[in-house]
Specification:
Subcellular location: Cytoplasm
Order of helices and strands: EHEHEEHHEEEH
Strand content: 25-35%
Number of domains: 1
Number of helices: 5
Structural class: alpha/beta
Main location: cytoplasm
Bound molecules: adenosine-5'-triphosphate, magnesium ion
Family: Belongs to the TsaE family.
Keywords: ATP-binding, Cytoplasm, Magnesium, Metal-binding, Nucleotide-binding, tRNA processing
Pfam families: TsaE
Distance between the termini: 24 Å
Length: 168
């Protein structure tokens, strides 16, 4: 949720989870992802965590990828193979209801530090959150099909969208 203007919108269809995985993999391969702030929107069971799991796998995470529903955030430190590490923070704000937690739990610092931020249920922390680069709004259609509205709010978001064109 943001009041910044949308710079570009695309509507995509994922006919199955594999298509979600292809989209995630295309994103994982673009350098613009490293400092990106991506919000995932859509109802319970839409596929927000599933998308993040595919993205983290494509980035090289091999261990268990937990849904951060209770912890609010799950951090990852990924080795990029060239000596660099990538900090990833996977948020789920579904249970977030105390704005003081934003400061107390160090969320503000995370957003102020380089690294990839992925946030489910961002609307629950809307006043605190900075403008995202990209918002993916997932809508379940019949069976495994998902309609995905992709909104870019920054030049980086536009770059991310461009990188997924082949996969969409
Ligand atoms: N095209 C698709 N893309 C993503 N997930 C899909 C797709 N088709 C089926 N699924 C399934 O839908 C389910 C999505 O669950 P998931 O936990 O990712 O939802 P969520 O949006 O994170 O929900 P919550 O709001 O509870 O966190 C998974 O079981 C996944 O396998
Ligand atoms: Mg989830």
């Amino acid at each position: 949720m943001t009041h910044s203007p949308i710079l570009e919108t695309r509507t995509l269809h994922w006919p199955d989870e594999e298509a979600c995985g292809r989209f995630a993999s295309a994103l994982a391969h673009t350098p613009a992802l490293r400092n990106a702030n991506i919000e995932l929107d859509g109802p319970l069971g839409a596929g927000k965590t599933t998308f993040v799991r595919h993205l983290l796998r494509a980035l090289g995470v091999t261990g268990r990828i937990k849904s951060p529903t209770y912890a609010v955030v799950e951090p990852y430190s990924l080795s990029l193979g060239n000596g660099e590490t990538l900090a990833v923070s996977h948020f789920d704000f579904y249970r977030f209801d105390d704005p003081r937690e934003w400061l107390d739990a160090g969320f503000r610092e995370i957003y102020a530090t380089p690294g990839l931020k992925l946030a489910e249920w961002a609307s629950k922390a809307a006043p605190q959150l900075p403008t995202p680069d990209l918002v993916l709004i997932l809508a379940p259609l019949a069976d495994d099909t998902r309609q995905v509205r992709a909104q870019a709010f920054t030049p980086r978001g536009i770059e991310l969208l461009a990188a997924t064109t082949e996969a969409a």
